[in-house]
Description:
- The structure is a single chain.
- The chain is mainly beta.
- The protein has one domain: Beta Barrel (Thrombin, subunit H), CATH 2.40.10.
- Helices cover about 5% and strands about 20% of the residues.
Amino acid sequence: MSGILISFRFGFPPEAAHCIKTQSPTQLEIWLRAHNASHIRGNERLIKLKVRRLIPHPEWDADTVSNDIGLIELSTPILFSSQNLNPVCLPSKDDGDFAGENGTVVGFGYTRPHGW
Length: 116
Protein backbone atom coordinates (compact mmCIF):
# COMPACT_ATOMS: atom_id res chain seq x y z
CA MET A 1 0.00 0.00 0.00
CA SER A 2 1.34 3.41 -0.85
CA GLY A 3 0.21 6.76 0.44
CA ILE A 4 0.68 10.48 0.83
CA LEU A 5 1.43 12.43 4.01
CA ILE A 6 -1.12 15.21 4.51
CA SER A 7 -0.08 16.31 8.00
CA PHE A 8 2.26 15.42 10.86
CA ARG A 9 -0.25 12.82 12.06
CA PHE A 10 -2.23 11.66 9.02
CA GLY A 11 -1.56 9.82 5.81
CA PHE A 12 -3.87 9.28 2.90
CA PRO A 13 -3.86 5.88 1.20
CA PRO A 14 -4.75 6.10 -2.49
CA GLU A 15 -6.20 2.58 -2.28
CA ALA A 16 -8.69 4.04 0.20
CA ALA A 17 -11.71 2.71 2.02
CA HIS A 18 -12.00 -0.63 0.26
CA CYS A 19 -8.47 -1.49 1.44
CA ILE A 20 -8.42 -0.08 4.95
CA LYS A 21 -11.95 -1.23 5.85
CA THR A 22 -10.77 -4.84 6.11
CA GLN A 23 -7.44 -4.12 7.88
CA SER A 24 -6.54 -3.75 11.53
CA PRO A 25 -4.12 -0.98 12.57
CA THR A 26 -1.94 -3.62 14.25
CA GLN A 27 -1.48 -5.37 10.87
CA LEU A 28 0.12 -2.32 9.26
CA GLU A 29 3.44 -0.53 9.49
CA ILE A 30 4.11 2.74 7.68
CA TRP A 31 7.49 3.17 6.00
CA LEU A 32 8.61 6.67 5.14
CA ARG A 33 11.29 7.17 2.48
CA ALA A 34 10.59 3.73 1.00
CA HIS A 35 10.15 4.76 -2.62
CA ASN A 36 10.76 1.24 -3.85
CA ALA A 37 10.47 -1.43 -1.16
CA SER A 38 12.28 -4.01 -3.30
CA HIS A 39 15.45 -1.88 -3.30
CA ILE A 40 15.76 -1.14 0.42
CA ARG A 41 19.19 -2.02 1.81
CA GLY A 42 19.23 -2.11 5.58
CA ASN A 43 17.43 0.63 7.49
CA GLU A 44 19.28 3.57 5.97
CA ARG A 45 17.10 6.66 6.23
CA LEU A 46 14.00 4.47 6.52
CA ILE A 47 11.42 5.59 9.08
CA LYS A 48 8.98 2.97 10.36
CA LEU A 49 5.81 4.01 12.20
CA LYS A 50 2.91 2.13 13.71
CA VAL A 51 -0.70 2.92 12.82
CA ARG A 52 -3.04 4.25 15.51
CA ARG A 53 -6.29 4.21 13.57
CA LEU A 54 -7.77 3.54 10.11
CA ILE A 55 -10.58 5.89 9.14
CA PRO A 56 -12.66 4.95 6.07
CA HIS A 57 -15.07 7.59 4.75
CA PRO A 58 -18.26 7.32 6.85
CA GLU A 59 -20.41 7.21 3.68
CA TRP A 60 -18.30 4.69 1.77
CA ASP A 61 -20.52 2.30 -0.18
CA ALA A 62 -19.01 -1.00 -1.28
CA ASP A 63 -21.81 -1.64 -3.79
CA THR A 64 -21.41 1.63 -5.71
CA VAL A 65 -17.77 2.28 -4.71
CA SER A 66 -18.86 5.83 -3.78
CA ASN A 67 -16.68 7.76 -1.32
CA ASP A 68 -13.86 5.20 -1.62
CA ILE A 69 -11.42 7.24 0.43
CA GLY A 70 -9.90 7.04 3.88
CA LEU A 71 -7.21 8.23 6.25
CA ILE A 72 -4.48 6.52 8.23
CA GLU A 73 -3.69 8.07 11.61
CA LEU A 74 -0.10 7.49 12.67
CA SER A 75 0.67 6.45 16.25
CA THR A 76 3.54 8.93 16.47
CA PRO A 77 3.57 12.44 14.99
CA ILE A 78 6.18 13.11 12.32
CA LEU A 79 8.68 15.85 13.11
CA PHE A 80 9.02 17.28 9.62
CA SER A 81 11.82 19.72 10.41
CA SER A 82 14.08 17.06 11.89
CA GLN A 83 13.20 14.27 9.43
CA ASN A 84 13.69 16.21 6.18
CA LEU A 85 10.13 15.29 5.16
CA ASN A 86 7.18 17.43 4.12
CA PRO A 87 3.48 16.77 3.67
CA VAL A 88 1.79 17.24 0.31
CA CYS A 89 0.61 20.83 -0.26
CA LEU A 90 -3.17 21.10 -0.03
CA PRO A 91 -5.30 24.20 -0.63
CA SER A 92 -6.84 25.95 2.36
CA LYS A 93 -10.51 26.90 2.75
CA ASP A 94 -9.57 30.47 1.82
CA ASP A 95 -8.24 29.37 -1.60
CA GLY A 96 -11.79 29.26 -2.95
CA ASP A 97 -13.58 26.93 -5.31
CA PHE A 98 -11.69 25.04 -8.01
CA ALA A 99 -14.78 24.16 -10.07
CA GLY A 100 -13.95 24.23 -13.78
CA GLU A 101 -10.19 24.03 -13.17
CA ASN A 102 -7.93 21.21 -14.37
CA GLY A 103 -6.32 19.08 -11.70
CA THR A 104 -4.08 16.07 -11.27
CA VAL A 105 -5.15 12.89 -9.52
CA VAL A 106 -2.50 10.60 -8.07
CA GLY A 107 -3.05 7.10 -6.79
CA PHE A 108 -4.44 3.70 -7.57
CA GLY A 109 -7.97 2.42 -7.94
CA TYR A 110 -10.98 2.24 -10.15
CA THR A 111 -11.36 4.71 -13.00
CA ARG A 112 -14.99 3.73 -13.54
CA PRO A 113 -17.64 1.76 -11.60
CA HIS A 114 -16.74 -1.88 -10.86
CA GLY A 115 -13.23 -1.40 -12.34
CA TRP A 116 -14.15 -2.29 -15.92
